[in-house]
Fold this protein.
Amino acid sequence: MFWFYAAALLVLAALFIVLPVWKFHRSSDATRSRRERTNLLIFTERVAELEAELAAGTLDEENFTALKSELERSLLTDVQAVAEASPVERAAEKGGWFSASRLVPLLMMLAVIPTSLFLYYEWGFQDELKLKDIYERTQASVDKPEEIRDLIFEIGEVIEDNRENGWAWYFLAQNLVSIAQFPEASMALQRASEYIEDPQDKAIVLSQYAFLEYMLAEQELTDKVQGIVDQTQRIDPNQVLILQILGMDAEKRQDYQSAITYWRRMLQLTPPGEESNLLQGMIANALQQLNASGQGEAVIGPRVDVELSLAPGLDLPGDMRVFVSALEYNGRPQPLAAKVLTVSELPTTVTLSDADAVGPFNISSAEMITVVATVSRSGSANVQSGDYQVRSEGFAHNGENAILQLQIADQVQ
């Protein structure tokens, strides 16, 4: 489609050159013809006047002959002047379409084709277009090993042309994973992470690299995996795959409190659906294990009971998610504790404590906190325009229990 539009634009550009050249020569021919007809008409009328004067006797034969000869010379001079009026026209007369006036614009028009192609290949985005085609074919080639192998060879050619093409390495990894070439895919992801510069894209690639290395290490958090995890979290501490690695490792070590912390953070970033239901089941199972081991009773500290409701007249779908978070007042934006429920559960009392921590910090780590409740239209914990929200004033918990009454009423602009 791109080349179709490019050809159409080239034809249009050619018309801008050819048509004016053609019209110019046609108008030149027409102008010369009109001037010749006018000169001939004037000559004929003047000769007729001289003949009339000769017949009337007001002009003798000698003067008549002299004046007529003068008119003929004048007519010949005008005709020659028209023929030699413009060098361009004279060249056109001699050479036709091969005259300089026509040939130069035509050659310039033809030069547009190779010049445009040269500049496009020098400055254009043909590599990006090729990668886009590879991406689309990668998505369409799932469960088609033969097509995947063909794609791998094509991507290899792209990499040979530019070994610092991070996205080519990334798509190579995706296709290698599809045919279970995991060690090779891990190497490709490592190269992709080295050459992709955008921080968010780099974090995504690093998280996939870490997860693949974690699985290759038989779910052991080796020094190599930990190094990749640390590198990723310095860019984005909320990468879901990294949280999944840390949650799985904590569960394997029977550190259920840490596992719950990571899975709750994942739940905040996961839209409603099968995956979020699975996470809730994992959290519930870990809580049972925690209580059965007696570790659940060891979680002490401040507690905030939030009596939460919707403002009268605010009618929202019952399946919309409600995020209730405790934040450090005028401090870090990451939640100290969080819970997720739905609009259908309101009004209700939500209890936040150190047991609901979603990161390395909890309510006890902050002297003053604020509580925020958000009804999310997107189902994500990231607040967006159109969500409904309420925020409490900052207060000091003093390590004790606090009770708040919050009513969700204001829409986020």
Remarks:
- The domain at 143-296 is CATH 1.25.40.10 (Serine Threonine Protein Phosphatase 5, Tetratricopeptide repeat).
- The chain has three domains: 2-123, 143-296, 302-411.
- The chain is about 60% helix and 15% strand.
- Confidence is low (pLDDT under 50) at residues 91-95.
